[in-house]
Prior knowledge:
With about 725 residues, the protein is mostly beta strands. The protein is about 5% helix and about 45% strand. It contains four helices and 49 strands. The strands form twelve sheets. The chain has a six-stranded mixed β-sheet, with no helix packed on it. The chain has a six-stranded antiparallel β-sheet with strand order 8-9-11-12-15-16, with no helix packed on it. Strand 22 (about 375-390) and strand 23 (about 395-400) form a beta hairpin. The longest helix has 20 residues, at about 45-65. It is globular and about 70 Å long. The model is unreliable at about 1-30, about 65-100, about 175-225 and about 700-715 (pLDDT under 50).
Amino acid sequence: MFRRPFVLSVAGLSLLAVAISGANCGWLNDSSKGEPTLRPFGSEQEFRSYLTSQATANSRNGGGNFLGLPMGNGFFLAPSAPMLAAAENSASDGAAGAAGSSYSTTNIQEVGVDESDIIKNNGETIYLLTGDQVHVVNAMPVENLAEVATISIDGFGNSLYLANNKLVVLSGYGSYGYGYGGIDVMPMPMPAQGSGDSSSSSGSASSGISANAPGTPVSSIVSGPWSNGTQTTVTLVDVTQPAKPNVDKIIRFEGSLASSRLIGHKLHLVLTTLPRLPENPTQSRVDAMTAGQWLPKYQKINSDGSTSDGNVASWQDCLRPSDPNGYAMTVVVTLDLDDPDAAFSATLVTANVGTIYASTEALYLTDTQYSYDNFSSRTDTAIHKLQFSDAGTEYVASGVVPGRPLSQYSLGEWKGYLRVATTNEQYVPRGESLSSGVYVLGLGADGSALETVGKIENIAPGEKIYSARFMGDRGFLVTFKRIDPLFVVDLSDATNPRIVGELKVPGYSDHIQLLDDHHLLTIGRDTIEVGDFAWVQGVLLTIFDVTDPADPKILKIGDREAREVIGGRGTYSEANSNPKAFNYYLARNALAFPVDLYEGQANGSGMDYGTHSFTGLYVYRVTVENGFEQLGRIASADGLQGNGCFAGYYGSTRGVFIDNNIFNVTDRGVRVASLDDIRMSLGQITFAGVQPLVQDCFWATVVPTLALPPSSDLR
């Protein structure tokens, strides 16, 4: 049957965010906010008193009344223990690839700032994270394509980094209803490290963790160091020999992973956590909590099985906003991958975190707040700058801008200035006020605040920002209601940013990146205008020519526009919402991204969905000279069957380029072809233990549901 995606209303998301964060909601009725500056605590007593008062205020404002009412620890799902399964590569045992080989990497925002993803490769080996496993695939040479090891991890996988011969696996688990009378689950004790069979001929982890054939990892239900709340796990794996990976160290942190970055050999994690209150908390029990009980914890498991634990930081490392904002904590932890035994550095902020952006110089945390008063609303975003240091991060200054950023791409740093693009949505008795702005922030004369030194406001009234990108002294914005205006912003003078060009075209762009110095490559959605709204259609690729910033236009090749529409209504790509699924490989001018294709409509109104006909990878050659040239596509699922059903696949599909080869990598396995002829398969493997494809037999009569469309202007 057709699977309907889970849909949660925006209002529901907002309420959920407040409930999870433990924020003090008192500011909802406060239309005037003070300065966003963070300041340290003067004493341990001040630290304890602040958190006690915030927890009490949160309880009274709907965060769960602990004054005389029992509260459970929540619903805890114990994860699998970190274990490793490995098999020897019968062909080369992880031999180096051919000299001079080239390969694609993760699509990142800033050069020098690596971002995690579910897939990484080094031109020889592909690592794919799916669920609680990492599949290790020998990719080159293609005739020896094989899964050579499977690494089972602690908790549910989040993402990966690959730094030289070290694989960093980020994972975790959470709780349901923590602090709200949830159900407790008693976890089983953790087996001793080294209890696995280290005599396996397939090779084992140096920690003694058990090793088996790929696809058949040992599993066990264990507890983490904390039996409630959330946990983030960092597993460091030595992959010098990919077929014989060794777990070097496991580090668990209390809290959930908000984001991360890898700069050089320093891994920066941004975690969010809600301090755990005592069982059956009363006011006196909360008052009696020590500083250590308020602080998040960590646990290290070394390769020899020894462990250590403690607080992630001390109260002296904690900062608070001038305007109290609950007792939830944002924790920035820095690990040195070259010396994982060294003490890590941490900065704690007693505030929520929203969008996170990092340059090579600094990490920026944002916290958007919504104020309601006298039947009107206002949205402001506080921005906190943490400078990278030899040890980790150091707080520098804070600022505030109207509105809210769409994503990390709405921020960009250049020559010490931070540029921020926001949509400012306000409600007043006479209706909604909606517009966008670009703000340039720099340090004030005394270096204690991020001050707005330049701005452009009231951009595209009535429209929201759908994508943004800052590159050097230029900025690019796409807003949308019924038609897509692309704005080119001149930021060469930080004190006088200017919109210098504008182009209106059908559809809109979700993501913008440079094709070269004078051309933009974008992915978005085609639309059909109907009155005061638009029907979303297929996936849209566009090359914009911004050689003349004052006259942006769609690139033309002869009389043909460099504009490609894929499919009809219902067609979607993960790359529409996740730029890491959008892989442009400069060495071959090749582009790969996943597509769920729907084709054919009953009429041309734009409101009818087509038929699901393909799920897989689309591959193009993209050049300024020839625009988009489709090289072919590689299916991730079997597609339409003779019985009229669609054999469907609902996991991730990613494209990896190595030399002149394109690999379609999914949760089910890997398929490889040459860019010279994608129709000719060069190899295929299926991971052990994969589930059968889902048979969708009612697609013709069921209308697909799109979860959370980007705007009410779209249908």
